[in-house]
């Protein structure tokens, strides 16, 4: 619980209360907005919109926590949390959604599975029969012998 609260309080970039900013914001670390922001936000880490924050923006982030107001579409690869004082007016695409009692989600929501690089990679091919024999403790015969035995059996049959 305390770890969660520390994470909500700490941020690498802060747009403080009383500050108005506009433009396109791209950040590699966490972002906290207590003031007003208009434009697009793309953040590799977490975005926190504090109680005094008013954001008119499309937001893309790992996790997004809203206790202020957001007007725009949001996409998270992790969790979207709307706290009791938070409002989201727009569409949401997320892997996990939490809306506290009193929180507002006015718009559509689409749930998607988390995007993991491991999941995108194809599964390894099954081991060939010869490799299975070696793993079971029996040495695999050389390929020429295996093919020769098959040819002899075909000719005999």
UniProtKB/TrEMBL annotation:
Biased composition (Basic and acidic residues): 141-157
Annotated region described as Disordered, given as residue ranges: 115-157
Biased composition (Low complexity): 115-135
Coiled coil regions, renumbered to chain: none
Any Pfam family hit: Bactofilin
Similarity section: Belongs to the bactofilin family.
Protein name as annotated: Integral membrane protein CcmA involved in cell shape determination
Source organism of the structure: Paenibacillus pasadenensis
């Amino acid at each position: 619980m305390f770890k969660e609260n520390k994470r909500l309080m700490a941020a690498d970039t802060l747009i403080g209360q009383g500050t108005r900013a506009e433009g396109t914001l791209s950040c590699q670390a966490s972002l906290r907005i207590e003031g007003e922001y208009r434009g697009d936000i793309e953040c590799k880490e977490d975005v926190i919109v504090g109680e005094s924050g008013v954001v008119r923006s499309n937001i893309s982030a790992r996790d997004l926590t809203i206790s202020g107001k957001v007007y725009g579409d949001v996409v998270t690869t992790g969790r979207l949390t709307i706290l009791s004082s938070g409002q989201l007016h727009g569409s949401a695409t997320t892997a996990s959604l939490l809306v506290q009692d009193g929180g507002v989600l006015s718009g559509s929501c689409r749930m998607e599975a988390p995007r993991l690089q491991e999941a995108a990679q194809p599964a390894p091919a099954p081991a060939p029969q010869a490799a299975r024999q070696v793993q079971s403790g029996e040495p695999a015969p050389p390929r020429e012998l295996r093919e020769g035995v098959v040819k002899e059996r075909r000719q005999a049959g």
